[in-house]
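Dear support,

We are seeing what looks like truncated structure output for some complexes. This example has two components. We would appreciate it if you could run it in full and send us the complete token output so we can diff it against ours.
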Amino acid sequence: MTSPEQIKEWIEAGLAGSTASVSGDGRHFDAVIICPAFAGCNTLKRHRMVYAALGTKMQAEIHALSMQTFTPDERKS
Amino acid sequence: MNINEKIQKQLDASPVVLYMKGTRDFPQCGFSNRVVQILDEVGAVYTDINILEDAELRQGLKDFSNWPTFPQLYIKGELIGGCDIVTELYENGELEALLAE
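Here is the complete output from our reference environment:
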């Protein structure tokens, strides 16, 4: 079973400059992801970037992932 | 007709299409249920398609949209997103604006 820590590692490894906080029960996960590269991207694009970082793991390991995405500036406000 | 053509046909047939788990009357997943609730709340006219009943469609959509999960909401043939995004757009009023276009 996948752990939240593992998902955090995968996101941070696959999405340069990102910090992720992940919680979950092994099937459904919630993630808050902060990354400067999100600047200028709408929510759909940001979610696609996170999915791209996770790659095939989304198919195999992760049943559901709820995401909140922010740039460092957005998170501060 | 290959699966991409089938999907394109479904998207062409209706301005708002929700690919979901279960049906709008009997959703089978909390996220799909949430999107149905939101769409009903804003009075959207939409076609619901149950991907649990069609394994080829289920996989085909993931490739078509390059999006790994369901539900998937399309407006005018374009992927809007899943539950998180639809919820966000609903809360900031953008969803109704998109539907009104």
